[in-house]
Design goal:
Blueprint lengths: L1 E2 L8 H8 L3 E11 L1 H8 L6 H11 L5 E8 L2 E6 L3 H8 L4 H6 L3 E6 L4 E6 L5 E4 L4 E11 L2 E9 L3 E2 L2 E2 L4 E6 L17 E9 L2 E11 L15 E4 H11 L4
Parallel strand pairs: 7-15
Antiparallel strand pairs: 1-14, 2-3, 2-14, 3-4, 4-5, 5-6, 6-7, 8-9, 9-12, 10-11, 12-13, 13-14
Helix pairs in contact: 2-3
């Protein structure tokens, strides 16, 4: 076990042959920063003073959320951690960090079948086929814990599940861990993703790996999400926007 302080289908054949040797659990912590959005709210004359104050309070109180990435051979499942810390976050009301990070979501990937699926707890009858990400790899690198990680910049559409992405997102991956699995469906890099930064309209979201364990005490068990209806990511985005009255 290693502790850390503080594309996809184009390389399927390579990763399929190598990833069969991997079984492990990676833990991530997601945090958000909504300072810019709060500043804009303060100057938003289209909202009443009460609404502005309520929104500022909400976006100032985001709490960290933890996730696990389970890996077993060609399969991976990214999901929230069932923990006391996450339960406090959920029970204390809406947590902006959790909403942006996907604290009620599952992300499943299978290299052999080329499946990449998203499922949200409150629309669990719907399975969403995730869009492929267009990654630009760079030579920029930094150390994250014991690993030399390389920077990649990614983009696809301007929205994800109804949330606008303001600019290309940044990922850091460890090429020595030769699996293309990533964070919350942001995957497909030539190595395990250890950090991801996304600038949404509601604030910056950052996931960071805090623990890597490729020697779990128990066998890793992964279940593929099951639903009655399948949508594309774009279709699901339209569906969510119709359902969402306000945020």
């Amino acid at each position: 076990m290693k502790t850390i302080f503080s594309l996809f289908f184009l390389t399927t054949t390579f990763f399929y042959s190598h990833s069969q040797n991997y079984q492990g659990i990676i833990t991530y912590k997601a945090i958000s920063n909504s300072d810019n959005y709060i500043l804009n709210l303060s100057n938003d004359s289209t909202k009443t003073e009460k609404i502005r104050k309520d929104l500022i309070k909400l976006f100032s109180s985001g709490k960290p959320v933890n996730f696990h990435l389970y890996i077993k051979g060609n399969e991976a499942l990214f999901r929230p951690v069932v923990s006391h810390e996450n339960m406090i976050s959920t029970n204390s009301g809406m947590n902006v960090t959790g909403v942006l990070a996907g604290e009620h979501s599952l992300f499943y990937a299978n290299l052999k079948t080329k499946e990449r699926i998203f499922q949200y707890q409150r629309t669990s009858n719907i399975l969403v086929n995730l869009s492929e990400i267009d990654w630009e790899l760079t030579n920029e690198k930094k150390e994250i814990g014991d690993f030399v990680c390389y920077k990649a910049q990614g983009s696809f559409s301007s929205e994800r599940f109804g949330f606008k992405i303001l600019k290309p997102f940044i990922a850091w991956y460890a090429s020595e861990i030769s699996v293309p699995f990533g964070i919350a469906g942001f995957d497909g890099l030539p190595g395990l993703m250890l950090e991801l930064i996304i600038e949404y309209e509601y604030g910056e979201l950052k996931y960071s790996a805090t623990q890597i364990n490729f020697e779990p005490l128990e066998d890793v068990h992964i279940e593929k999400p099951v639903g009655r209806q399948t949508m594309s990511e774009k279709e699901y985005g339209h569906y969510v926007n119709k359902k969402r009255s306000s945020f």
